[in-house]
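We modelled the chain as a single entity of 77 amino acids. Its sequence is:
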Amino acid sequence: MSQKAILDRIEDGKAVFLLEPDQQIWTVPQAKLPKNIREGSSVRIDGTRITLDAQTTAENKARIASKLEQLRRKNGQ
């Protein structure tokens, strides 16, 4: 069974994921990450296999960019 998560940060050689839906922390050595996964990436975890969820990552990035733009417009008034 796969689980969704977001790569929250990389610190001290460890990748720190927030598991959905309850935001539990899960860490793995940074060396185990696929090269295409960066902080903020949405992933699917199947056992020890981590794969990028490109669609969810793109949707999250667009949603955050939209919110930032709204804040900029609001503060610029």
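As a brief sanity check on the tokenised model: Residues 54-75 form the longest helix (22 residues). The beta strands are 3-11, 14-19, 24-29, 42-46, 49-52.
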